[in-house]
Amino acid sequence: MAGVLVLLSIGLITIYFRESSGGGLHQVQSAGATVLRPFEVAADRVSRPFRDAYGYFADLVNAKSENNRLRSEVDQLRQQATQNAAAASENVTLRKKLHFVNSRSFPRNYTYVAADIDAQPSSALVQQVVIGAGSANGVQLNDPVVTDAGLVGTVVKVAKRQSLVALLTDDTTWVSATDVNTRARGIVKAGSSFEHVSKDQRVDLGDELVTAGWKSGTLSSIYPPNIPIGRVTSVGQNDVALYKSVQLQPFADFNTLSSVLVLIPKNRR
Amino acid sequence: MIGDAAKAAAVLFVAAIVQVTLLAQIDVFHGAPDLVLVTLVSIALLRGTIFGAIAGFAVGLVVDTATLQTLGVTSLLLTIAGYWIGRYGETTGRDRTHAPFVSVAVVTFLYSLGALILHYMLGDNVSASRVLLDAFPFELIFNLILTLPVYALCRRLFRRAPTGLEEVQLIG
Description:
The complex is a heterodimer of chains A (269) and B (172). With 269 residues, chain A is an alpha+beta fold. Chain A is 34% helix and 28% strand. Chain A is globular and about 70 Å long. Chain B is globular, with a radius of gyration of 16 Å. Chains A and B meet through helix 1 and helix 2 of A and helix 1, helix 3, helix 4, helix 5 and helix 6 of B.
């Protein structure tokens, strides 16, 4: 009996692995996920008050020191905002003079679908979450997923009412990125390191990294430019390595992730 | 038997939903408690190989469906875990107080190792150090903490009806 079940499992893995995303088993899984969703939502609703209460008390512990830090940050940002506003208006004028054609930019050329986190695999092997929006909501494969803090990941599997999102911290997630201050370019891997940054480029501690959003002929990055990714936490280089060694801390907090926005290009709908 | 199957289905279904929606969000160095595994081990210890294997296969399918992962991966691992622990429960582990804790500890390690190998064979980008060095110690602690209440609940639910034939131990 157990042997039959083991063979059946291996058979399922083989068929699922070999068939396309529109195949029979995928459709059965999609239907099954739709059936399970109400139970997941119910479990989430029952537990939410407890999680909120925990979050409230956890936040209280750090409230005073965080308040002081945020106040000084607000002062800095206020000055920066004034400078940015002047630069932005100058930028608009110069672009008009140059007849500059913009590529698709975030968030202007994107609409979004808001979705709750429904489920996630409990394995250190995969950094993925299931969100409560799928093809019925306009979500497609490779759509970028964000929160107000920054980039969260990419849609890697789409069912009718749910989608699987590979988080920025997943080993399979690579994002071409740019340093906002120095314009150094590289690739953010698994949300923890900024790789392929040549030694002649400058990256400073505390710099912000955003998506590069490159375009080359008909090919383009799946991420629009200027989505915040994270802040540089360490920079190093040695004589042997070809590239700099840069570590970063993502802006999005993946431990408290409860809802996300899936970005959908406006002209696709 | 049918009553036991219905109870096992209900308990494992609830465990699977709680696991994928709530417990999987706990992340201590990538380690999270695995309620499904602990519940399956408890049921398999109390009800044996066939029950354990079928329960493992079914709950594995529910987990893979809810998390949109490759169908069959969790089923395969849990079928083997259910069968093996059922075998232990039917033989040497029977009526031993430490059996649930030993079973959970060993299965937690073998499950992590099995998942690692399976994902590697499927071409996923896996990190052995993350799974076995970072996550495993915390996963083990969480699972051992869960074992006591979950096993107690399962023992209450799957209590065998008295048959009138009681085992007699001869002294001397």
